[in-house]
Each structure stands twice: as structure tokens, then as C-alpha cells.
Amino acid sequence: MVGSGRNRPLGPRRAALAAVALLLGGCATTPPGGFVVEIPPGVTDDRGRFSEVYCAVLDSHGTSLPDHRSCDEALSHVAGTPPPPGRPVELGTSARRLVIGVVPGIGYRCVAGWLETTSSVRDHLRRQGYDLKVIEVDALSGTTTNARRIRDAIVAMPEEPGPARLVLLGYSKGTPDILEAIVNYPEIRPRIAGVVSIAGAVGGSPLAEDANEWMADAFRFFPGADCGKGDDQSVASLRPDVRRRWLAEHPLPPEVRFYSLVTLPDPDRISWVLKPGYWRLSEYDARNDGQVLYSDQIIPSGSLLGFVNADHWAVVLPIDRAHPVVGTLFVNDNEYPREAMLEAVVRFVEEDLSPSR
Questions:
Q1: What's the pLDDT at 28?
Q2: Interaxial angle between packed helices 338-353 and 47-61, expressed in degrees from 0 to 180 and rounded to the nearest 10
Q3: Cα–Cα separations (whole angstroms), residue 258 to 24, 46, 255, 304, 315
Q4: Residue 226's pLDDT is what?
Q5: How many CA atoms lie within 13 A of 206 on its CB side?
Q6: N or C terminus of the chain: which is more exposed, having fewer CB within 10 Å?
Q7: Residue 7: is its pLDDT beyond 50?
Q8: b/e for 91-128, b at 16 or more Cβ within 10 A?
Q9: What are phi and psi of 271, to 5 degrees?
Q10: What domains, with CATH codes, occur in the chain?
Q11: Which pLDDT score, from 0 to 100, does residue 32 have?
Q12: Which of 315, 123, 86 is nearest to 200 (CA)?
């Protein structure tokens, strides 16, 4: 880690490549014995139990799901990971029937048509008794605008009796969008069972420091793009000073449970197109996913689920499934067992929300 360079701006010769890595979202090697990480004070380390749940899902029916990996390959090798507690894992149909409300990252709506995402994840979760829906936000707006959109979407949902079933899941910029909604609109908190961040830009990304809004605006000209211009704050809202100042000034409400799943891939698991971002971020800290530093993905005072061996795109975006040529040439390490991973996340959250815990 190059701690002394933490706030250095990107050089102009590298800004364009770094911005590409941000907006679409000599080699180092994994340290012997695994990555060494620091868990922030106040964060609950639940890696042992999450790994137990994830491994049970992969072992039970993961081989029938796309992009199967063994548990050892799916999770990052991190020194000091707590051992599994050795408790049984419930793999039957969900009793609480949680609903996952996904808030995607920057530019997603612009490229969604091109991605040709199938219903594979939703169909799999429904077979387990869960559901999944996408909460529409502006692809190119800042966190304040999107927080309001999240609030309006939740208020428009029909109220149901019993404990809350909605789990908000933020990917990349979707996580700070959600955090602002939770803080700014307390009326939605009773309707939320929990918040999960996957590769979330909680603390922003240094790649945003020299990026400009016109670079994000280029998403509108992507083939098949269906998105508006937004409020011209999408990139600015991801700058580290902006996100850190917001976190310092806005404590998260204790009545909402927060969970973080961090992408920390081996260097050879990072796709070619994300390598420039990885190399640039390595000037700050080599422990990054090609777009966000590992330490900037952890929600303060929440639960740390674990570290997965996938880059920033592979963990959520199935690019190579719809575009194998692009996958072979550019996004060449995009395979990841997303269906199994998300099932494990939701099962962990359901267990954690149980009154018996």
C-alpha cells in the first residue's frame, strides 16, 4: 500500500484510462498466505459464518448453476479469516421470503439493453422463496437525486403486515445512493429489513478525482442506451473527499442493519479492460478490484460478510454470457457464480434477522 500517495490526483496521461475503469464501472501477485486486511473499528466480522453459508450453497447445488467455482476459488484468500462456527445451514425454502431491491451502479441503465441480462438470478432466488426487483435510479445523477428516487420507489410499494421483508442491495455507486436515502428519509426505515453492499463505493474511488461529468455522459451514446442526462453529479458524488465528508457528517441509523461484501480479487482474476484502473489504484493500495479500494467498500458499523475473488464487474455484471467475443478479448475474467453468491448473501441476512439471533 502506498499510503503517502492517498490524495494524489491522477496524472493527465492516465486520466482517460482511469475514467473508463471508473465509469464502466509487471504484475502483482497474491501475498503468500493471503491478503492482509484491516477491519475498521465498530465493524462486526461475520466472515466465518458467511463462508460457511456460501460453501454450503456451492456444495449443495452450486454445480447446477452457471459459472460454478469451488468455495476455495470463489472466496479471496485473506489472512486471519475467522473459522466457520460449525453450525448447520438452512437450505430450504425461505420462511421470511425476503425481497431484494437492487440499486445498480453508475451508467447501468444506459448499458442494460446491451448487457442483455437474463432473469437467471431472479429465477434462482424465487426457487428458494425469495424475490428480486431492480429499483430504478438515474444512471447519470448524483447520490442526492438518486436517494430521493429510492425513497419514492419504496413509498410506492404496497405496505405488508409483519416484519419488513425488503433488503436493499447496492452495487458500486448504488450503495452510497442507498445510504443517503436511509439517512435523508427516515420514513422508509421501518420498511427496510437490511442493506447489503456488494463492491460498494462507500468511500468513493480515487479514480473519480480527475474524471469529469462529460465522460459519464458518453454512456448516453452507448448502443441501445435508454437513459437521460441526469443532474451532472454522478462522478462528483463518487470523489473520496465527498463521500468521506458525507459519512463523517451523517451517522448511519442504528435501527437498520448493514452488510458489506467486498471484492478483493487475485491480480490474475482482473479482466484486461480493468487493468489500467487496477494499476492506478495500486499506487494507493494494491488491494483493489480494478475500480474501488477494498477499504472503501466497507460500511461503517455494519457486518463484514467477506471478500470474494472477483473484480468489480465480474461480481455482478454477466458480460461474457451475452457477449462471448467481448468476454474473450476484453472482459476476459468475467465468470463468477453470482446466483450462488446472492443466495448465500440473502440466506445469511435472513438468518441474521431471525429473532433467535
A1: 53
A2: 130
A3: 26, 12, 10, 9, 19
A4: 78
A5: 26
A6: C
A7: no
A8: eeebebebbbbbbbbbbbbbbbeeeebeeebbebbeeb
A9: -60, 150
A10: 47-353 (3.40.50.1820)
A11: 61
A12: 315
For residue 341, CA distances in Å to 62, 80, 292, 310 come to 9, 22, 20, 11
Phi-psi category of residue 34: left, alpha or beta, with phi > 0 → left and psi -120 to 50 → alpha: left
**How many CB atoms are located within 10 Å of the residue 161 CB?**
4
C-alpha cell at 8: 494524489
Choose among 44, 28, 40, 31: nearest CA to 78: 31
What is the enclosing helix (H) or strand (E) of 21? helix 12-23
pLDDT class for 322, splitting at 50, 70, 90? Answer: confident
**326 — phi, psi (to 5°)?**
-60, -40
* pLDDT value at residue 21: 42
Determine the 3-state secondary structure of 8 from DSSP. Answer: coil
Identify residue 224 by its one-letter amino acid code. G
Would you say 287 and 293 are in contact if contact means Cβ atoms under 8 Å apart?
Answer: yes
Q: In sequence order, what E strands does 264-309 have?
A: 303-308
Q: Kindly state the helix (H) or strand (E) to which residue 167 belongs, with its residue range.
A: strand 166-171
- pLDDT tens-digit profile of 70-100? 999 999 999 999 999 999 999 999 999 999 9
Q: Are 237 and 143 in contact (CB under 8 A)?
A: yes
Report DSSP state, residue 288: B
What pairs with residue 308 in β-bridges?
Answer: 75, 263
State the Cα–Cα distance between residues 241 and 282, nearest whole angstrom: 19
Among residues 240, 253, 244, 101, the alpha carbon closest in space to that of 184 is found at: 253
Stronger pLDDT, 39 or 8, i.e. the higher one: 39
* The model scores a pTM over 0.85: yes
Query: Looking at 142-237, which runs of residues are DSSP E strands?
Result: 166-171, 192-198
- Angle at CA of residue 238, ends 3 and 253, nearest 5°: 95
